[in-house]
């Protein structure tokens, strides 16, 4: 593996030396590939424009990231920014100097890449959704073919850009991002035939959330009993990150696990809320657009709420609660509030 890692470091050095003028683009790509963007931007837009796509986005994102967590605990992947300091591969030669960035020092294992996996899965869902809408409009075969060609080209170009960005910031080795892309597309294709997610009961949401959470925690405890320290990466991040403020608790495995479980539970609570059932009566284009704008605004405001990581239990608990509230705002609270507003305006016009 040292040889494979050294080749990855060479590629990182090459990217940092020759493509530093694209640094802002690489950072933007990593930001868009983060599941945080899926939850606070892509989901509210798609849910109010085409509900089933929004639901699928959440399931693909949550299950994909859960699998990513399990893979990381099994594969024990190194990250370039700490590997160069600890490896014996370079013997007496000086270790390569990798530039670090605010998004470099993630605290979990590196394989497979979560950003690559998320971008591949989420963008696959969105691309297939756009193609489906195009085919429903009964456009000509040539138009559909051209749309499919350009859409998949742009989607995969973005995924490649994300992979390059993760290697550029020294957060991942090339083989880790490639594995992430393959895993992400596989998860997206699995859910392309999972019609049950649109009819799942609240009980199923509770059971799925509890099952995913307890199985991950059980796996963690089992490995810990066997003497495996799954928090080994946190120590490395704190040791080798050039700036302490770049090490964030919200990039730890447990933080992402609880965030995703909160999102999934919030999706179920929202879809089965009386507020959501009542708001479904309003389906006009102005109403949907208003829901999108209001949801994006409120989620951005909620996103500014951050918690101190001094007490891990409080930090994880509040993060879980915040994640649960986010989809509920989009699905139930915003549509119900706007439904009352639109209805009152309509009644005034009838007087």
TrEMBL record:
It comes from the Eukaryota. It is a multi-pass membrane protein. The chain crosses the membrane at residues 25-45, 145-167, 173-192, 204-223, 257-277, 284-302, 314-342. The active site is at 115 (proton donor), 172 (nucleophile). SUPFAM superfamilies: Acid phosphatase/Vanadium-dependent haloperoxidase (SSF48317). Residues 53-192 form the Phosphatidic acid phosphatase type 2/haloperoxidase domain. Its EC number is 3.1.3.9. Pathway: Carbohydrate biosynthesis; gluconeogenesis. Belongs to the glucose-6-phosphatase family. This is Glucose-6-phosphatase. It comes from Scleropages formosus (Asian bonytongue).
């Amino acid at each position: 593996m040292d040889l494979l890692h050294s080749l990855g470091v060479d590629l990182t050095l090459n990217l940092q030396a020759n493509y530093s003028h694209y640094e802002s683009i690489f950072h933007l790509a990593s930001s868009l590939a983060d599941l945080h963007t899926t939850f606070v931007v892509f989901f509210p837009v798609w849910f109010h424009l085409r509900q089933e796509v929004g639901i699928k986005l959440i399931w693909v994102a949550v299950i994909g990231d859960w699998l990513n967590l399990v893979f990381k605990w099994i594969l024990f992947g190194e990250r370039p920014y700490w590997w160069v300091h600890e490896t014996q591969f370079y013997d007496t030669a000086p270790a390569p100097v990798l530039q670090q960035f605010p998004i470099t020092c993630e605290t979990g294992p590196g394989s497979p890449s979560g950003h690559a996996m998320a971008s591949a899965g989420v963008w696959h869902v969105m691309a297939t959704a756009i193609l489906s809408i195009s085919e429903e409009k009964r456009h000509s075969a040539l138009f559909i073919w051209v749309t499919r060609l350009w859409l998949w080209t742009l989607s995969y170009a973005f995924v490649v850009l994300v992979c390059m960005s993760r290697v550029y910031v020294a957060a991942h080795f090339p083989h880790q991002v490639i594995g992430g892309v393959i895993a992400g597309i596989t998860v997206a294709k699995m859910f392309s035939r999972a019609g049950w997610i649109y009819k799942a009961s609240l009980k199923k949401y509770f059971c799925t959330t509890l099952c995913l959470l307890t199985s991950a925690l059980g796996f963690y405890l089992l490995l810990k009993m066997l003497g495996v320290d799954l928090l080994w990466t946190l120590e490395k991040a704190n040791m080798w990150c050039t700036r302490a403020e770049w090490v964030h608790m919200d990039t730890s495995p447990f933080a992402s696990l609880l965030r995703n479980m909160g999102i999934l539970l919030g999706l179920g609570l929202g879809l089965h809320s009386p507020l959501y059932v009542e708001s479904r009566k309003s389906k006009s284009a102005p109403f949907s657009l208003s829901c999108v704008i209001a949801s994006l605004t409120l989620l951005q405001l909620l996103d500014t709420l951050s918690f101190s990581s001094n007490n891990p239990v409080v930090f994880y608990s509040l993060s879980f609660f915040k994640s649960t509230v986010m989809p509920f705002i989009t699905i139930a609270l915003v549509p119900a509030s706007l439904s009352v507003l639109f209805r009152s305006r309509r009644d005034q016009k009838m007087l």
